[in-house]
Design goal:
The chain is built from ten helices and five strands. It has helices at about 10-15, 50-55, 75-80, 95-110, 115-135, 140-145, 150-160, 165-170, 175-180, 185, and strands at about 25-35, 40, 45, 65, 90.
Amino acid sequence: GVYEVENGITVRELIELAGGIRGGETLKAIAFSGPSGGFTPAILPRGAWPRKIQRLLPANIEQVNILDLQMHINYFRLWDLMLGAGIVVYAQDADLVDQALACLRFYQTESCGKCVPCRIGSTKLAEIGGELAEGRLTRSELEELATETGPITELASTMASTAICGLGTVAPNPLMTLLRFFPEEVRRYARP
């Protein structure tokens, strides 16, 4: 649906306004800007917070329930979260590997092909997502992909700094956030 609400409404209030999560299930993840922003987990552990937020909030707060976050562009900027376009809510039974692959394939087909970083990069991301979903990657290969200096981060950085348009900067986000925030879900797809 389409909802127009005041700045500052919480994520929980918006989801309730939209009818809640299907079947009364609990929230697993949310994409605040559609696939462009990637997947934000329902519970955001302190280690995943931007440093500026870690300094602002008391040390005894170990995690934040994303449902309690106020939806205001300035707050989202502080949290390094995107806000805009469509918001997608994923219930506990959602397969985020499947969802990430669908997003990666979407970006691959949406690339106009004019710039090489986006054309090649979005294709490579979709290939990696396909290998993950088909169970062709080992645990060690998946761990390498998830590192801050791994090939996904390097590819994302190259795409962001050399792509002609914004598509190249956001195309890696579904896979990057999947690997960062949902390692247990990714491991279920690992080849023994």
